[in-house]
Amino acid sequence: MIQKRIDKGDAEAIYFLGDKYFHGELGLAKNVPRAIELWTRAAELGSLDASLLAMIQERVHKGDANLIKNLADRYYHGSLGLAKDVPRAIESWTKASEIGSLDAHHELGHRYYFGDGIEEDEKKGIYHWVQAAVRGDVESRHKLGDVACDYGNYELAVQHYMISAKMGLEGSLNEIKDMFKDGHANKAQYTEALIGYRDAVEEMKSPQREEAKRLGFNR
Asked: What Pfam families is this protein classified in (predicted)?
């Protein structure tokens, strides 16, 4: 049935076969180059999913950490024509994290800490957030503040939120503001966070953006 559709130039059937070659399923030996070839052919025949996936998979095959993370996202959500496959998403996020993707570490932190799609493991979740945070991932740094706050360690929470606020994350500034209101942070800490946040935002502004604003655009 599939072969007949392929022989007739059915883009989606060709795309489907490429997926099976990539994963070595349906009795086919895993053959990434063949998969890319089929996805490319499907894309040329009009399959948008195949076009995007072919590009992603080719770079995945070359060890592109960000694209491996992107592929994991697709598996997790079941997009680009891929069936939702959480175990494969976790596997791909793990691979991406091992070769340097901070976003993958952050994603794994969330999945493990909250048991989202995988068995809950707070320690492993925190481990992944730490790995990303120490390498500059602002969202993971904020999450460490959340964890400290949840466990009542407000001093540590302020330390983490302070770092991410000074990196320009408004949510972290707001957390320190709320902690100040609740008596868990002092005025000096809130002031320091506010100044650091403003400096970070100012530093991130581009001359082009300011020029556009001056001319009346981006309103």
From this structure: Sel1
- Is residue 4 predicted with pLDDT exceeding 80? no
Q: What is the DSSP letter of 27?
A: T
Q: How confident is the model at residue 218 (pLDDT cuts 50, 70, 90)?
A: very low
Q: Does residue 40 form part of some domain? A: yes
Q: Quick one: 115 and 143 in the same domain?
A: no
Residues with Cβ within 8 Å of residue 217, at least 6 apart in sequence = none
CA distances from 176 to 50, 72, 150, 182, 196 (A): 46, 33, 14, 10, 12
Token pair 């997790």 is found at: 76
Helix axes 170-181, 138-150, angle to 10 degrees: 20
Rounded Cα distance between 203 and 214, Å, is 18
With helix as H, strand as E and coil as C, how does 46-85 read? Answer: CCHHHHHHHHHHHHHHCCCHHHHHHHHHHHHHCCCCCCCC
Task: Please provide the average confidence, as pLDDT, over all residues in the chain.
Answer: 81
CATH of the domain at 83: 1.25.40.10
> What length does the chain have?
219
Confidence of residue 208 (pLDDT cuts 50, 70, 90): very low
Enter the pTM of the model. 0.67
Q: How many domains does the chain have?
A: 3
